[in-house]
Structure formats: structure tokens, C-alpha cells
Amino acid sequence: MNEPHLPGPGYTALAEDLLGRAQRAKERRRTPGAERLGMTSDAVAALAQAQHDNTAGLKRIVERLGQWPGRSTVGPEACQAAVDIAVHSDHNTALQRTLLGLLQKAVEVGDATSAQLAHLHDRCLVNAGRVQLYGTQHWYRPDGLLQPHPIADPAQLDTRRARAGLPPYAEKARRLRERHGPIASLSPAAGDESAPISQQRAA
Questions:
Q1: Contact 100, 121 (CB under 8 A)
Q2: Among candidates 167, 88, 105, which has minimal Cα distance to 135?
Q3: Which of the listed residues 40, 50, 70, 87 has the most CB atoms within 10 Å of its CB?
Q4: What are the Cα distances from residue 136, in Å, to 62, 63, 72, 170?
Q5: Residues 6+ apart with CB under 8 A from 181
Q6: How crowded is residue 122: how many other Cβ atoms within 10 Å of its Cβ?
Q7: Handedness of CA 1, 3, 165, 77 (dihedral sign)
Q8: For residue range 161-183, what is the model confidence (pLDDT) as tens digits?
Q9: What is the CA radius of gyration of the chain?
């Protein structure tokens, strides 16, 4: 049995920083379903500022470590917090892609998971106007319905998700429905347009 990954010596403060940042951002994003479309301008601005601050904080941590803050350095929960921050760093897509490369290296040495990589990979693809691979990224349509961004080769989606350590999409969709209400078609055509992440309340 693998031993739990505890924060490395001297890095407990970094772990606490990441966990605190991710938790505060999560609380700001807690508004469920279509209600997000009705967020006030002040609430949207506060969320955007929190995400900017979190990205800057993650950037400083990465620069200090010279690598992704992985499980062996900050522990599994803080590693996931770093992934959450990176996924929502849409205002700095260049940095987001750099973080993807660092996370890839961490996965290769067992310091992060393939599922974490899949989420950030999908986000970078969507931000680049490309189809996602793992079906992890969704957006709220003007009618409030949650819809996945276009997915490459939907017939093979669950195969790719299994390889990345993700559950079948049907299970993911069930969890989304429980929190956000009805969701739209699983496999919109690759050519269908969806709103840029910067103009949505992404799930």
C-alpha cells in the first residue's frame, strides 16, 4: 500500500496557502446552476479578482519550487488545490499552458494524477478554441442549461476517461445534475460554437 503523501519539510506553509486560496475561491463559486447567470456585477468582479490573486499566488509558489507543487512537496490536497487554481486561471492562458507542462512532468514521476492532468488539459484546449478530450469542461447557456464544450470523438470518450482515471461520463453527468440541474446533449458537434470561458460561468 502506498504511504500518504504529506507536505515536504519546510513546505507546510505553501500547502496551507494553496488550500486557503482554493477554498475561498470555491466559496465564491458555490452559487449553483443557472443562478450563476444572475450574479451581480460586484459578485462577478469579486470572483474575478480572487481568481487573479490565486493565479499570482500559484505562480509565486511554482517559481519558488521550480516545479509543480506535487503530492510529495505539499501533499495531495494542496496539489489538488493547485490544479483547481490553474484550471480557473483563464485570464492568463500563457501561464495556464506553462502550468500544464509542469503538471505533466509531475504526473510522469507520480507526483500528481492523470485525472488532474485531464482537467487542466481540457481547459487549455477549450481556451485555445479546440475540442476537449475528456469531457471535463462545461458552460452555462443563456437559457441556464449546462452543456459540455465540444468533445472530440464522443464514442471513445469513456475509454479516454478510463485511461485518465476518470469515471464514466454518465456518472459525471449525474453529479452535475444533482448540483446544477439538467444538462444538455453530451456530444455537440465539433463545429458548434460555445461561449468563451471568459464570458461564461463554467462548471
A1: yes
A2: 167
A3: 70
A4: 24, 28, 26, 12
A5: 32, 33, 34, 144, 145, 146
A6: 23
A7: positive
A8: 999 999 999 999 888 888 777 77
A9: 17
Q: Are 163 and 114 a contacting pair, CB within 8 Å?
A: yes
- The model's confidence at residue 26, banded by pLDDT at 50, 70 and 90, is confident
Single-letter residue type at 120: L
- Secondary structure (H, E, C), the chain: CCCCCCCCCCCHHHHHHHHHHHHHHHHHCCCCHHHHHHCCHHHHHHHHHHHHHHHHHHHHHHHHHCCCCCHHHHCHHHHHHHHHHHHCCCCCHHHHHHHHHHHHHHHHCCCCCHHHHHHHHHHHHHHCCCCECCCCCEEECCCCCEEECCECCHHHHHHHHHHCCCCCHHHHHHHHHHHHCCECCCCCCCCCCCCCHHHCCCC
**Residue 129, all three cell numbers:** 478554441
In this prediction, residue 198 carries a pLDDT of 44
Q: Cα(187)–Cα(185) distance, rounded to whole angstroms?
A: 6
Distance from C-alpha of 43 to C-alpha of 46, rounded to nearest angstrom: 5
